[in-house]
Amino acid sequence: MERFRVQNGEVSLHVVADGPRDAGSLPILCVHGWPELAHSWRHQLAHFARAGRRIAALDVRGYGESDKPEAVADYRLSVIAGDIAAVIDALGGRAVLVGHDWGAPIVYATALRHAEKVAAVAGLSVPYVPMGDVSFLDMARQIYKDRFFYQLYFQEEGRAEAELAADRLALHKIYFGLSAAGTDLAFLMNKPPSAGLLDGLAAPERLPDWMPEADMAVFVEAFRRGGWRGPINRYRAQDLDFAEREPVKGRPLAQPACFIAGEADVVRHFVPGMDLYADPGAFCTDYRGTTLIPGVGHWVQQEAPEAVNAALERFFASL
Fold first, then answer.
1. Which of 21, 99, 197, 297 is surrounded by the fewest CB atoms within 10 Å?
2. Bridge partners, residue 17, by sequence
3. What is the percentage of the chain residues whose pLDDT exceeds 90?
4. Omega cis (within 30) before 256
């Protein structure tokens, strides 16, 4: 396993990589979501390196050992897409991208804004939907005007940071609560607007098998040291993303693409009455298929690494 840093402007990014440099195939770059790290891809790094592929993952800006700028504007999708493009350049100039949770919109944005660097895209948990004439936050403000929605809760600077920093089991609650074993969708979607993020999320008596204590300790220590502001700023930057949408507005995803998710992922029901996983390839021009994994929640590449790796293998083989 290699560790190195990539500079993009004033921001230094921490990258881990494995597998041969001269693999003879395009490198794979994995991009995590919230609240995760490059460590979220440990199973994929090990698997594809053993298979002879060059594979890397980064701590997204704001997380882990990457730099953590303070300003909300530093977390716009266009800016983070520039980070991913810089890492691709360090890997040779062109790559296949794999993104989970916020990592999925990040890799989609990179594919749109730096198309020549992106050979293909695998999205996990969040399907590709192009920006249109209504911002996601404005839509959420209407849908959830009388209920709690975590992305709206995150808009007030400092509030969520304080709640999460004060609870030493915050990550235990989040990881368990959004896994297949912990998901209580009816409650999560109907908390009162005055609720906190962790209200109703219980820490498990013991961690699930897919999250050993040693791995959880990696996440806990990273967020203890780095704090929560940077990761949450990505949510706060969404209206700024909307303001600079013109270069990507309405555009389909042109690269070969696939979608992988757990059947029990809460993201699937973010819009009440709709199944967001019904047609994940609707806005892709070269869609290679959907894999929904039974009995799996939001942390799909960690909850079901073998199934995710198999789905990625099929996708890579189709390229």
1. 21
2. 2, 56
3. 94
4. no
pLDDT digits (tens, 9 = 90+) for 83-92: 999 999 999 9
8 Å CB contact between 122 and 257: yes
Q: What is the mean pLDDT of the chain?
A: 96
Q: What is the pLDDT of residue 189?
A: 75
The residue-averaged pLDDT of 189-207 equals 91
From CA 60, how far away is CA 139, in angstroms rounded?
A: 26
Question: Strands 55-58 and 257-262, how do they pair?
Answer: unpaired
- Dump pLDDT digits (tens) for 199-221: 989 899 999 999 999 999 999 99
C-alpha span between 180 and 265 (Å, rounded):
7
Q: Mind telling me the catalytic residues?
A: 101, 298
pLDDT exceeds cutoff 90 at 318:
yes
Could you give the CA distance from residue 60 to residue 11 in angstroms, rounded to a whole number? 11
Q: Are 319 and 120 in contact (CB under 8 A)?
A: yes
User: Are 230 and 69 spatial neighbours (Cβ–Cβ below 8 Å)?
Assistant: yes
Q: Which pLDDT belongs to residue 184?
A: 74
